[in-house]
Amino acid sequence: MALPFIIFFVGRSGSSVIMSDLEQHPDVTMRAEVFGEKNLPNGAEQTDENRLAWLEEYWRPWRVRPTVKRAKGFKFQVNRGAPQFDDIGKLFEAIRNHGAKVIYLERADTLRHAISPIRAEMVRQVSAEAEGRPRAHIFEDASDAVKQVASTPIQIPIHRLERAVWSVRVNRGILQSYKEECRPDLILQYEDYMADKLSVLNAICRTAGVDEYVTAPPDRLLKITDDDLSRSVENYDEVMSWARANSVV
Questions:
Q1: Which CATH architecture has domain 5-245?
Q2: How far apart are CA 46 and CA 50, in angstroms?
Q3: To bridge 198 with a disulfide, which of 111, 152, 178, 216 should be the other Cys (CB 3.0-4.6 Å)?
Q4: Secondary structure of the chain: what % helix, strand, coil (to 5)?
């Protein structure tokens, strides 16, 4: 039986690439950060009351017809600076009331996690200039100028890296506190996804009650940071020295 689900994550943990994979599943409806947009999908203002009303409508089929064959999920970013729910306890209660599955997506590599949003700013800038729309990811239909960013090293100012590491750690702490109040049905690691995409996606399928993939869906997003960090960071030695001195690696 297909089930509703929610994916909690800290930004730049791989949620967008996983969403693009789930969008290709015939029995999954996957939405992005509906509570992080200017308005809700129905046009309503972003208030907890309206969020809960939208969620009731989105997940309502499971309340009235428990044999639904299509899973419906969405992403929820944990962000101390821009919370997507004012009273998070109300969201947890709604999750329990709907019997929704709770998935937590984590990223183990703190340094790469912190570098990713800094590189994403470059992607936004180039996509705005080349395509007229700022995007923080490199999609398969991106212009050559945007795709080239993936192989372009940049300077990582240490003061910005320090702030980014602090932000990652703070938001991870919030995510951990969520686990204590809203117990996970599945915990994923971005690094596991990169190592074995099909296994991770099928773990989501089993949790959401839909058929597993036979083969992994094609990639629709490109990585913005090289596996070899020295190819993405101009001042690699300086960054690694700082990271080691501050127990980031």
A1: 3-Layer(aba) Sandwich (3.40)
A2: 6
A3: 216
A4: 50, 15, 35
* Helices 158-181 + 110-131 axis angle, to 10: 110
Read off the pLDDT band of 124 (50, 70, 90). very high
pLDDT band at 63 (very low <50, low <70, confident <90, very high): low
- C-alpha 228, offset from chain centre: 22
Answer yes or no: are the C-beta atoms of 9 and 105 closer than 8 Å: yes
d(CA 223, CA 104): 21
Q: What is the pLDDT of residue 126?
A: 97
> Any idea what DSSP says for residue 77?
E
Written as six digits, the tokens of 245 are 């001195």
215: number of Cβ within 10 Å: 6
**What residues pair up with 103 in beta bridges, in sequence order?**
7, 186
**Gap between the Cα atoms of 48 and 121, Å rounded:** 30
**pTM tops 0.90:** yes
Report the run of H or E that residue 147 belongs to, with start and end: helix 144-147
pLDDT tens digits, one per residue of 155-208:
999 999 999 999 999 999 999 999 999 999 999 999 999 999 999 999 999 999
For the chain, the structural domain boundaries read 5-245
Cβ count within 10 A of residue 44: 13
Distance CA 74, CA 201 (A): 15
